[in-house]
Every structure is written in structure tokens, then in C-alpha cells.
Write a structure and sequence with these properties.
Layout lengths: L8 H9 L25 E10 L10 H18 L3 E11 L5 H18 L2 E9 L5 E10 L15 E4 L5 H9 L6 H8 L8 H4 L4 E4 L4 H11 L4 E4 L7 H8 L4 H10 L6 E5 L11 E6 L4 E5 L2 E2 L11
Parallel strand pairs: 2-3, 7-10
Antiparallel strand pairs: 1-4, 2-4, 5-8, 5-9, 6-8, 7-9, 10-11
Amino acid sequence: MSGADRPDEFETIARLLRPLATDPAARGLLDDAAVLTPQPGRQLVLTHDTLVEGVHFLASDPPGTVAQKLLRTNLSDLAAKGAEPFGYLMSTAWSPRCDWTFREAFAAGLAEDQGRFGLSLLGGDTVSTPGPLTVGATLLGWGEPSRCPSRSGARAGDLLFVSGPIGDGLLGLKAALGELDGPRLLDHYRRPEPRLDLIHLARAATASADVSDGLIADAGRIAEASGLGVRLDLAAMPVSAEGRAWLDGQPDEASARLQLATGGDDYQLLLAAAPGDAARFSGLTQVGVFEGEAVEVVFDGAILPVARAGWRHG
């Protein structure tokens, strides 16, 4: 790409990003900051994720899905806190391959999800880098006081529920790499579905998190923050139809389920609840109980050794 063809910062903002700044708080992206007016009786909930090409998405992924994955991974964090999303700040470090066609498709992906999830771009920064494409977003949402559960609220005897199938993130990556055929799994990997439909249940949980790094890793973080252990039953772990088909083709179901439970990128919710409140969470699947002092993983009554609980950055 020649220097004349390379889009600059201000042209990118004016042509692609300003139309996304629909909330008056963004001041049309003509200022260096957004100015928010707090809603009476609500709490402001903020979360931030960064995605790096080659780590969180593939260079071959369509730019629109990269934009949507950026928003949706953050929306999943807001869902786990029982917060209703309304806006975001975004940073983009464009690599040399990100020409106008790429940036236009990226902005189109943002626009599509803004309309779907009720979001507005509030500000941020856009720069260029000689390295891989790197994008980050800070999502903002409104929560209800005393109903924004943390990781640290679980109590001994609380049950652990998960909102949906585990393992589709790992299998979706395999689909993206051409290791298996699965259009829905590929779409899940590129555009995970944040469980904003379960905000009401998250607000009733004693503790919560989303499954981004793996079921075992994220359940373990709730347990650690709460000063407890957790016993996870992989036989109870829900899987999709594609996950069941993949399991059927593996030589050892216990180790295969362990792979799914440590793969990450599922973006289901993990919600802890007292046994007396279990009926409220009947649409979810119980996969564990908080007890003891360590993370214990079992399958068909046997304790499984866990070498790696989930994804970790160096």
C-alpha cells in the first residue's frame, strides 16, 4: 500500500468512526473525552478486553467479525455482572494490511452490532503499528446497586451453574484452522454470543464470571476469589450436538471432555447460587459445588489430573 493510499487517523475517524458515535456523550468525536451523565440509582460497570491478531483471531478472519468479537467478548463480561450495555471506547492499532476496504468492513461490523446490542461509540484512539493488528474496547453498562455479583461472593455449599454448551470455542478454532467441518462452530469462534438474555439471573447470583479462558480456569478463579474450593463434574458439563459428535470420535471421553473444559472462548456464564435458590436457575446446568479448598475435577466418580486449567497469557 502506498503512502497516498494509506488512510490516516483523522480520515478514519471522520469517515468511519464518527457515524458510530450516536450518543451525545461522545460529542461527535470532536473532543478528547466523552461526558456521561449517570443514571439515577444505577451503577456504572466497566470492562476492557484487547484482541491481538494471531492470538485472539486469525489473520484470515473477516474484518467485520473481528470487530464483532471485540464487542461481544466485552459484552459477555457485562452480562456476567448483570449490567445493561450502552456504550464503548475503542482503540485500534492498524497493521500495514488494514487498507480502506478492511477498515470499512471493520466499521460495518461495529455498526451491525451497535444496532443489535444498543451501543454507541463514545471515543477512543486510532493509530498505526508495524506489528499485528491490535484492537481494544472498554464497554460501559448500567448495573443495579447490590446486584452486580463479583467473583468473590460464593459461599460454602453454593452450587455452580453454567448457561450453555462448553467446548464450542475450542471446536470453533479447530474449524477455523480447517481441522473439522462446522459452520456454526466457526461462527461461534468468530462471533460469540454474549448471554445478555441472562442478566436477570446474573443479578440473582452470589458470584459470577463468564467462560473466556476455560470452564475449569474460570470456575477456579471464582473459588479462589471466594476463599473456597470447587468440585466440578465433567459428566454433567453440557455440550452441543457438534461437541457430542466430536466426543464420540475420541478414544477417551474423560480426556476429551477435559480438552473442552480447558479450551476457552465459550462465553457462557458461570453463576453461583445457594441450594435454596436452585429452582431459579433451573434453565441452566449445574456443573459443580463450592466446597473444600482446592479445584477438583471428576468424571464418572474418578478424579482427573489437570495439567492446564485453561488459557493463560505469558
